[in-house]
């Protein structure tokens, strides 16, 4: 049976309705991608920061054993580079203890540069999720160390033991700020570095 020209054209081309449906679907997919991609990228930044922190802490253990002297691990209380945001632990640095001053304070050699966390990443300010939260905050008179920012710290001894509380593993939990605000409770997207206080072995969760 022969088909008319009209029938042939109907089967060989898209109608206006079909084109509009396709455009609508593409628009929906683009909108969904725009909503999910930033969150996925932020989660990847959080994971990368946690992996780097865990690796640097394990390296600090090796440094203490190699030098056979204490190593100080500092976490600096800093503002974000880009406002808005709040003061929080946003950077860290490892320093080898070279001696002690007349007042019993450690003198250190800051061989490693400060590692700044991504601008929306910080240590959760809660003693439940951050063992260092609530510990003594030290003044910093060295502008080359964390830009002079105050810090909290602990020490790794030459045998791998630490000054962290020995009753239970220590934990350092990284979270992300949302709209420049620190989460009031632990969010669903977080990364925790768990530290054995007796060996300073670090595991990432």
Automatic annotation (TrEMBL):
<keyword id="KW-0812">Transmembrane</keyword>
<dbReference type="InterPro" id="IPR045584">
    <property type="entry name" value="Pilin-like"/>
</dbReference>
<dbReference type="Pfam" id="PF07963">
    <property type="entry name" value="N_methyl"/>
</dbReference>
<keyword id="KW-0472">Membrane</keyword>
<dbReference type="InterPro" id="IPR019836">
    <property type="entry name" value="Verru/Chthon_D"/>
</dbReference>
<dbReference type="InterPro" id="IPR012902">
    <property type="entry name" value="N_methyl_site"/>
</dbReference>
<keyword id="KW-1133">Transmembrane helix</keyword>
<feature type="transmembrane region" description="Helical">
    <location>
        <begin position="12"/>
        <end position="35"/>
    </location>
</feature>
<protein>
    <submittedName>
        <fullName>Uncharacterized protein (TIGR02596 family)</fullName>
    </submittedName>
</protein>
